[in-house]
From TrEMBL:
This is ACO11 thioesterase. Residues 62-174, 236-374 form the HotDog ACOT-type domain. Residues 35-61 are annotated as: Disordered. The gene is Acot11. Keywords: Fatty acid metabolism, Hydrolase, Lipid metabolism, Repeat, Serine esterase. The lineage of its organism: Eukaryota, Metazoa, Chordata, Craniata, Vertebrata. Residues 449-608 form the START domain. SMART domains: START. Pfam families: 4HBT, START. Pathway: Lipid metabolism; fatty acid metabolism. CDD domains: BFIT_BACH. GO terms for molecular function: carboxylic ester hydrolase activity; lipid binding; long-chain fatty acyl-CoA hydrolase activity. GO terms for biological process: acyl-CoA metabolic process; fatty acid metabolic process. Residues 40-50 have a biased composition (Basic and acidic residues). It comes from Ptilorrhoa leucosticta. It catalyses: butanoyl-CoA + H2O = butanoate + CoA + H(+).
Amino acid sequence: RATLLLSRCLLKMVKGNVIVPEEILSFCCNGLQGSTSPPRAREPGEREEAPGAMASPSPARNPTEVQMSQLVLPCHTNHRGELSTGQLLKWIDTAACLSAERHAGCPCVTASMDDIYFEHTISVGQVVNIKAKVNRAFNSSMEVGIQVSYEDLCSGKHCSICKAYATFVAQGPLGSKVRLKPLTPQTEEEKIEYSIAAERRRMRLVHKDTLKDLLTHSTQETELETRDGRGAVPAEKTRVESVELVLPPHANHQGNTFGGQIMAWMENVATIAASRLCHAHPTLRAIEMFHFRGPSQVGDRLVLKAIVNNAFKNRWVPAAGVPLPPSPRPSAPSSLLSGSMEVGVSAEAYGQEMSVSRRHINSAFMTFVVLDQEGHPRTLPMVAPEPGDGERRYREASARKKIRLDRKYVVSCKQTEVPLSVPWDQSNKVYLSYNNVSALKMLVAKANWALAREKEKVRMYTLEEDKFLSFRIEMSVCITASRAFSLLSNLRRRHEWDSHYVSAELVQKVDDDDMIYHVVSQKLRHENKPQDFVILASRRKPCSKGDPYVVAFRSVMLPTHPARAEFTRGETLCSGFCIWPESEEMSKVAYYNQAMPGYLNYVTTNVAGLSSDICSTFEACEKFLLKNKEDLISRLQDF
């Protein structure tokens, strides 16, 4: 009753333009919400609790992290009741953009998106959960990592959908570039992503050259399987062209079209093109890495074009014990064959005047499959490419398929899932180099290293994981980091300080940063012959201040250097040096190694203190660096 009287008095005071004291207003509002007493005065130094704050403190979260949850409604789905991939791409781009703008403090635009592999479809009524956060900021661009999963509200089941990496560029007034503040990673996961982001950036920059190089080295008979035309669908019949008008809801507050909206429109026309080949409803399985060439604005007309470039036949490998036919004959069971198709799609923009040439906004390549009732990919008709550009696109699609497989199985999978000695060739050199350096950086970023031994200046640490025992040995040396990097990255000089090395022959200089060596080591105690290795050595200079110099080693296979009877072929999964400058003349040199089974006894003997061989070898490394640093300076000056 008292609250009601006060409320009536408050209403009269407001109507009479009388200023209401804050204490009375607060008391009335609290009373209307069920409180019958005035608010308690805070004690000196007591902080005001935020509305809705939990009693227990929550763990610190990355300030750039954005979480989005979307309930899949019928308006978001296709005819099968599954979430449209175009709609999912819009949500992914929105969440990633919000994360980028949190770090930049200004508007950001999508510059590129790495490969996306969609593992599952999402049904109506399920919830899409998207988490995005900035992995690393460079000068004016930043990498945003995105994780997508779905949640079934009825069963409580959670399942991963895809993981993506997007690059955003910060924009100032009139589209000027903004220099970004550096990002400091806190957790072990963030440190790993931060470190490897530099390698992913390097891989993006050479993506075009990788495709061009593969096409140059491949033969001209790149499986034009449909020359005779029998049963093949002319590619021209799959061609689609559509136009969209960019309206304010499609753009940000600066008037630039959302990258996710463009991707959704592109996915739509690509799906139509794929449907024209298979006369069914296809499912999008992957989108290849792509770059936005330029912006489009509100009022632009976007012309979207799509065509099927190639259709592939993939042979299924059934479970063990189930024999396969000797060859994929036309009469082979359809369950043993599956198919996928690549659709090329482009977006061009123009204004009201058609006299102005169209601006190329984006090109993308999407891989589709057609699923049967059991969810297995069906076989697809062959494609008959048009002469000229059609045949070029057909061959490029085959090259892109190989690159996709290399990226997926060398780059995307976990380190423990990559075969030890991956066959090296010209087409996968970029991805093997990436895997080599990123594996070492992941090992460096691990948090649970334990000090095992310390002998004078040399410290030895171990890291015990489920399948591996890794060790790290480090010391400070009076030498600049760049000079130590030059000396330690040359394996041909390793025998000068490492008694285990007999020789190291440079087999192939891939480029300035990657070289392949044939290494011969001493005889093993239980063997009567020496061990040999074929090793890819990848070196990296710091990408930004605080990064180390890196020299990474891993085993590869070369047809020119098969295993020979006079050697025991050895393998190394992950090893190498990281060198941090401590001052102008001092550097911290650290060597890392994931011990293979044949090397395990040697490591554990040193860790237990039963041998000082590793420490002695590292002390010899220090003497080598000190002895040769002046020679290196004079040689560089002469050069």
